[in-house]
Amino acid sequence: MPSDASESFGLGRNCTMFDTGRFWAYGAVREYWAPNGLGRWSKAVLERLQAINGEFPQPLPFAEVKATAKSISGWTWRNMTPAGLQDLIERTHTPEQQAERGRKASNQVEAGIASGQARKLSSEQDMATARLMRAQGHTQQAIADALGVSLRTVKYWFAQKQ
After folding, report:
1. CATH number of domain containing 28
2. Comparing C-alpha atoms, which of 28, 2, 23 is closest to residue 138?
3. What residues make up the domain containing 151?
4. Distance between CA atoms of 76 and 63, rounded to whole angstroms?
5. pLDDT tens across 50-64, in order?
6. 68 and 10 assigned to the same domain
7. In this predicted model, what pLDDT tens digit does every residue of 71-130 receive, in sequence order?
Protein backbone atom coordinates (compact mmCIF):
# COMPACT_ATOMS: atom_id res chain seq x y z
CA MET A 1 0.00 0.00 0.00
CA PRO A 2 1.58 3.33 -1.03
CA SER A 3 2.17 6.00 1.57
CA ASP A 4 0.32 9.31 1.50
CA ALA A 5 3.37 11.19 0.27
CA SER A 6 4.01 8.76 -2.57
CA GLU A 7 0.50 9.39 -3.87
CA SER A 8 1.25 13.10 -4.15
CA PHE A 9 4.53 12.64 -6.04
CA GLY A 10 3.08 14.16 -9.20
CA LEU A 11 2.15 17.35 -7.35
CA GLY A 12 5.77 18.19 -6.65
CA ARG A 13 7.71 16.92 -3.70
CA ASN A 14 8.86 20.39 -2.64
CA CYS A 15 5.32 21.76 -2.62
CA THR A 16 3.95 18.69 -0.88
CA MET A 17 6.64 18.77 1.81
CA PHE A 18 6.24 22.53 2.28
CA ASP A 19 2.45 22.48 2.58
CA THR A 20 2.35 19.44 4.83
CA GLY A 21 5.06 20.89 7.05
CA ARG A 22 3.60 24.37 7.30
CA PHE A 23 0.11 23.16 8.21
CA TRP A 24 1.62 21.09 11.01
CA ALA A 25 3.82 24.00 12.11
CA TYR A 26 0.98 26.49 12.55
CA GLY A 27 -0.32 24.60 15.56
CA ALA A 28 2.84 22.91 16.75
CA VAL A 29 4.86 26.10 17.28
CA ARG A 30 2.93 26.83 20.48
CA GLU A 31 4.69 23.97 22.24
CA TYR A 32 8.02 25.77 21.75
CA TRP A 33 7.03 29.28 22.87
CA ALA A 34 9.60 29.79 25.58
CA PRO A 35 12.83 31.70 26.00
CA ASN A 36 15.48 30.15 23.76
CA GLY A 37 12.83 27.96 22.10
CA LEU A 38 13.79 28.83 18.53
CA GLY A 39 16.61 26.27 18.41
CA ARG A 40 14.37 23.45 19.62
CA TRP A 41 11.64 24.62 17.25
CA SER A 42 13.96 24.67 14.24
CA LYS A 43 15.18 21.17 15.07
CA ALA A 44 11.59 19.89 15.43
CA VAL A 45 10.59 21.34 12.05
CA LEU A 46 13.64 19.81 10.36
CA GLU A 47 12.87 16.41 11.90
CA ARG A 48 9.24 16.63 10.77
CA LEU A 49 10.22 17.53 7.20
CA GLN A 50 12.80 14.74 7.10
CA ALA A 51 10.02 12.32 8.06
CA ILE A 52 7.76 13.70 5.32
CA ASN A 53 10.62 13.53 2.81
CA GLY A 54 11.26 9.92 3.80
CA GLU A 55 7.79 8.99 2.56
CA PHE A 56 8.59 9.98 -1.03
CA PRO A 57 9.63 7.23 -3.46
CA GLN A 58 12.57 9.47 -4.41
CA PRO A 59 13.40 11.70 -1.43
CA LEU A 60 14.64 15.23 -1.95
CA PRO A 61 18.28 16.07 -1.20
CA PHE A 62 18.94 17.02 2.44
CA ALA A 63 19.90 20.58 1.43
CA GLU A 64 16.38 21.17 0.05
CA VAL A 65 14.75 19.72 3.14
CA LYS A 66 16.97 21.86 5.37
CA ALA A 67 16.20 25.05 3.39
CA THR A 68 12.45 24.38 3.52
CA ALA A 69 12.63 23.65 7.25
CA LYS A 70 14.52 26.91 7.82
CA SER A 71 11.86 28.82 5.89
CA ILE A 72 8.93 27.25 7.76
CA SER A 73 10.51 27.48 11.21
CA GLY A 74 11.59 31.10 10.70
CA TRP A 75 8.25 32.29 9.37
CA THR A 76 6.16 30.56 12.01
CA TRP A 77 8.47 31.73 14.81
CA ARG A 78 8.17 35.35 13.63
CA ASN A 79 4.47 35.31 12.78
CA MET A 80 2.81 32.77 15.06
CA THR A 81 3.50 34.42 18.40
CA PRO A 82 1.72 34.45 21.75
CA ALA A 83 0.89 38.12 21.16
CA GLY A 84 -0.48 37.28 17.71
CA LEU A 85 -2.62 34.49 19.16
CA GLN A 86 -3.93 36.83 21.83
CA ASP A 87 -4.73 39.42 19.16
CA LEU A 88 -6.59 36.79 17.12
CA ILE A 89 -8.60 35.71 20.16
CA GLU A 90 -9.46 39.32 20.99
CA ARG A 91 -10.59 39.96 17.40
CA THR A 92 -12.62 36.77 17.05
CA HIS A 93 -14.04 36.37 20.55
CA THR A 94 -15.57 39.73 21.36
CA PRO A 95 -18.63 39.69 23.64
CA GLU A 96 -20.80 40.52 20.61
CA GLN A 97 -19.38 37.65 18.57
CA GLN A 98 -19.74 35.22 21.45
CA ALA A 99 -23.35 36.37 21.97
CA GLU A 100 -24.06 35.79 18.26
CA ARG A 101 -22.57 32.30 18.49
CA GLY A 102 -24.78 31.64 21.50
CA ARG A 103 -27.86 32.83 19.59
CA LYS A 104 -27.00 30.53 16.69
CA ALA A 105 -26.61 27.57 19.04
CA SER A 106 -29.88 28.45 20.73
CA ASN A 107 -31.61 28.71 17.36
CA GLN A 108 -30.27 25.29 16.41
CA VAL A 109 -31.71 23.80 19.60
CA GLU A 110 -35.03 25.55 18.97
CA ALA A 111 -34.99 24.24 15.41
CA GLY A 112 -34.65 20.73 16.74
CA ILE A 113 -30.92 20.29 16.28
CA ALA A 114 -29.72 18.59 19.44
CA SER A 115 -26.10 18.76 20.49
CA GLY A 116 -25.46 15.29 19.05
CA GLN A 117 -26.79 16.43 15.70
CA ALA A 118 -24.63 19.56 15.85
CA ARG A 119 -21.57 17.37 16.56
CA LYS A 120 -22.49 15.16 13.61
CA LEU A 121 -22.78 18.21 11.38
CA SER A 122 -19.37 19.42 12.57
CA SER A 123 -17.86 15.99 11.95
CA GLU A 124 -19.33 15.92 8.44
CA GLN A 125 -17.77 19.32 7.74
CA ASP A 126 -14.40 18.04 9.00
CA MET A 127 -14.72 14.95 6.78
CA ALA A 128 -15.42 17.17 3.77
CA THR A 129 -12.40 19.31 4.61
CA ALA A 130 -10.31 16.15 4.98
CA ARG A 131 -11.38 14.90 1.55
CA LEU A 132 -10.49 18.26 0.02
CA MET A 133 -7.08 18.31 1.71
CA ARG A 134 -6.49 14.73 0.55
CA ALA A 135 -7.31 15.74 -3.03
CA GLN A 136 -4.75 18.54 -2.66
CA GLY A 137 -2.13 15.95 -1.75
CA HIS A 138 -1.88 16.30 2.02
CA THR A 139 -0.87 13.27 4.07
CA GLN A 140 -3.33 11.76 6.49
CA GLN A 141 -1.13 12.89 9.39
CA ALA A 142 -1.11 16.48 8.09
CA ILE A 143 -4.90 16.38 7.78
CA ALA A 144 -5.24 15.05 11.33
CA ASP A 145 -2.94 17.77 12.66
CA ALA A 146 -4.73 20.53 10.75
CA LEU A 147 -8.19 19.43 11.89
CA GLY A 148 -7.17 18.62 15.45
CA VAL A 149 -8.27 15.00 15.27
CA SER A 150 -6.39 11.73 15.62
CA LEU A 151 -4.75 9.98 12.70
CA ARG A 152 -7.03 7.03 13.47
CA THR A 153 -10.09 9.26 12.93
CA VAL A 154 -8.80 10.45 9.57
CA LYS A 155 -8.08 6.86 8.48
CA TYR A 156 -11.62 5.90 9.56
CA TRP A 157 -13.09 8.72 7.48
CA PHE A 158 -11.24 7.60 4.37
CA ALA A 159 -12.15 3.95 4.94
CA GLN A 160 -15.88 4.77 4.94
CA LYS A 161 -17.78 4.33 1.67
CA GLN A 162 -18.59 7.65 0.07
Report:
1. 1.10.340.50
2. 23
3. 113-162
4. 20
5. 999 999 999 999 999
6. yes
7. 999 999 998 888 888 887 788 888 888 888 888 777 766 666 555 665 666 677 777 778
CB burial of residue 25 (10 Å; 0-12, 13-18, 19+)? buried
What's this model's pTM, rounded to 2 decimal places? 0.54
Domain boundary among 92, 122, 139: 92
* Residue 119 and residue 86 share a domain: no
Q: What is the pLDDT of residues 104-117, one digit of tens each?
A: 777 766 666 555 66
- Is there a single domain that holds both residue 78 and residue 118? no
Q: How many CA atoms lie within 13 A of 58 on its CB side?
A: 5
CB 40 within 8 A of CB 8: no
User: How far apart, in Å, are the Cα atoms of 20 and each of 17, 45, 57, 102?
Assistant: 5, 11, 16, 34
